[in-house]
Amino acid sequence: MRELTIDLGDRSYPIYIGEGLLDQIASYFDKHGLSKKSPLFIVSDSNVAPRFLPKVQQKLEEGGYRVVTAVVPSGESSKSLAQFEQLITEALQAGLDRNSAVIALGGGVVGDLAGYVAAAYMRGIRFIQIPTTILAHDSSVGGKVAVNHPLAKNIIGAFHQPEMVFYDLATLQTLPEREVKSGLAEVVKHGLIWDTEFVDWIDAHADKLLALDAEALGYALYKGCSVKAAVVSQDERENDLRAILNLGHTIGHALEAVANYNELQHGEAISIGMVGSAILGVELGAPQEVYEVTKRVLQRCGLPVRLPEHLDTDEIMEAMMHDKKFKEGHMVYIIPTAIGKVEINKAMSAERVRAVVEQLKKEG
Amino acid sequence: MRELTIDLGDRSYPIYIGEGLLDQIASYFDKHGLSKKSPLFIVSDSNVAPRFLPKVQQKLEEGGYRVVTAVVPSGESSKSLAQFEQLITEALQAGLDRNSAVIALGGGVVGDLAGYVAAAYMRGIRFIQIPTTILAHDSSVGGKVAVNHPLAKNIIGAFHQPEMVFYDLATLQTLPEREVKSGLAEVVKHGLIWDTEFVDWIDAHADKLLALDAEALGYALYKGCSVKAAVVSQDERENDLRAILNLGHTIGHALEAVANYNELQHGEAISIGMVGSAILGVELGAPQEVYEVTKRVLQRCGLPVRLPEHLDTDEIMEAMMHDKKFKEGHMVYIIPTAIGKVEINKAMSAERVRAVVEQLKKEG
Ligand SMILES: NC(=O)c1ccc[n+]([C@@H]2O[C@H](COP(=O)([O-])OP(=O)(O)OC[C@H]3O[C@@H](n4cnc5c(N)ncnc54)[C@H](O)[C@@H]3O)[C@@H](O)[C@H]2O)c1
Ligand SMILES: NC(=O)c1ccc[n+]([C@@H]2O[C@H](COP(=O)([O-])OP(=O)(O)OC[C@H]3O[C@@H](n4cnc5c(N)ncnc54)[C@H](O)[C@@H]3O)[C@@H](O)[C@H]2O)c1
Ligand SMILES: [Zn+2]
Ligand SMILES: [Zn+2]
């Protein structure tokens, strides 16, 4: 079992990573002093619930906890204000009170949605993440929670730190291959922004990761979470440094939107976006290997590096204008200066970005 | 002009109270470093907007600010998730970015609603309160923002401190009489929980307050805000002390709900609730004058002290079960021990409260 701490003063919390952790969930809840009188509200999705919800519920109830559950349809469309409202209604009907906790059992969708319910319900109650995807090593750490609006992703949200993150590697075994690859994109991102040795390690162990080797996965998630933890501890509310976590995301979010949030996975979109950032980096003076290594590692992880040609460049550019990172007319871009190092560029011109979008359609 | 500061470390902010302040609003915005590039989003309601919105907009535009506006229907029903969503949509369409601010121009409804928009939009942008009711001296200070759910009031919300509170006493001149009285209920509350001399002062100046005498109003709002500021500074997130601000609110909120949020004003409901608390206080050992003074001062301010008989006691008790202050089976009540002093009682029995509800139907 690996453990690390997100250091945020009186909002600090641990991340537990290990195989078979769910068997001991009740004792972890005991350790964290969760209430046995107030109901716990587990939110999961239609793919994850049949696999793991009965076990989680059973273990908690055996430990003396009161559990109520809600299952939302799987997929990004559940990260909506309508679904949020529905969960608030269920929470009220179940009698959740200020000592209750909301527990997200699932990937980033369930984490962001349930987390926003926890942030908003009675202006904030306790929140626990049980991530079941690789991508969620990213989404479950850092306290960002949100739902989408038809006009923009993650636009309605809060900062609400969890009480703990509880990662049972065993749950990852049932992940569809495409989700595995997509999740690895954020792992690669954490290497690219912070840790050149970790990038080399991924380069060498991509096969094991794709094969869901428990030891390799545990290490990769531990390292990925550690990078995120280091960044978030220094800048909880994204005043500055935290923006580096957006490597590949300005283009990536635009691609997801223009592809109607169904054609491209989040990880696939940011994989393409990270290649775009690497191109921009090299244009601005980074060594050529930044582009080469970025592209190679992503491809080793089975990720796309080419922007689908049928996605309209004008629409992509337009989508970027709605992005939170579009500040007072300047585009803010995270640009690699070396492998493991990035800088925040606050005056990226739209023309330059447009040229890169065009170029990404020819990658391969 | 009176000024006081809400002391919350790096989230501290000033409250400005004076007549004719709106004329100088642009210079205050300059002082606070608001962006002239990013749009300001003024939210008002259908009663307030025709009276004051053109002036606010004009003064800000003359000062070089970009202004977009939204007007919601007046009344508590605008504090809904549907209205919240509509405002988020308008904010997106207007291109609000991370340097934008949301400005609430109106009473507590607009303050709570617009404040929650500011809290949620991009996970939180700047927020400014321009209260135009007496009650809003309470709602605009302390950072609580929220919308209602059909099953419970203020259940969906956040803590989001404003950047400043900007109180122009001139706006209060157009307040309907019933709103004046209702607002005074929170002024009285601030005296009752904290400051016996202030209660005496209200007792002696109720007539002037009801006549909207600017000097008396300015003093009363300054004192009321000061009490709230003192409490909130010591306990921003309602872990303990801040609960005393709920004097009269457990019963009050239940009454509002059972009266379908239309028969009773918030201030009227908590006026009745405060008499209920005084009865409980005397039963638990406070001097008889606690009941007498509480009742007299509220009546001098033109407020009701009798619970309308047709409101069903069972429904009132049921509504209290949904209240945020209902914690793990115990009812939390704020109970006066003297005029200007209260204590937090965490084990109030439902039977005792029921008896007081019945008794309140016979007050007068
Ligand atoms: N809050 C943050 O900081 C942050 C960071 C990155 C991404 N995100 C968000 O995360 C979301 C994407 O997360 P995701 O990729 O985990 O998506 P997801 O939650 O939709 O999960 C992907 C798919 O895998 C299924 N699934 C999950 N666990 C499974 C398992 N163990 N076995 C089988 N199937 C399983 C899900 O049902 C879903 O169909 C996006 O909404 C994104 O905005 C948030
Ligand atoms: N956030 C908090 O800490 C807090 C505290 C107390 C109350 N509240 C909330 O405040 C709300 C009640 O506030 P309120 O009493 O100000 O209600 P309100 O905003 O509905 O205003 C009352 C009425 O007066 C009208 N009005 C406002 N200003 C006017 C003016 N200057 N001239 C003429 N008409 C005017 C409004 O249109 C409305 O019809 C409730 O929703 C309550 O939950 C919040
Ligand atoms: Zn991401
Ligand atoms: Zn109140």
From TrEMBL, chains A, B:
Its main location: cytoplasm. It comes from Paenibacillus roseus. Belongs to the sugar phosphate cyclases superfamily. Dehydroquinate synthase family. CDD domains: DHQS. Zn(2+) binds at E186, H249, H266. NAD(+) binds at residues 74-79, 108-112, 132-133, 144, 153, 171-174. Keywords: Amino-acid biosynthesis, Aromatic amino acid biosynthesis, Cobalt, Cytoplasm, Lyase, Metal-binding, NAD, Nucleotide-binding, Zinc. HAMAP family: DHQ_synthase. Pathway: Metabolic intermediate biosynthesis; chorismate biosynthesis; chorismate from D-erythrose 4-phosphate and phosphoenolpyruvate: step 2/7. This is 3-dehydroquinate synthase. The lineage of its organism: Bacteria, Bacillati, Bacillota, Bacilli, Bacillales.
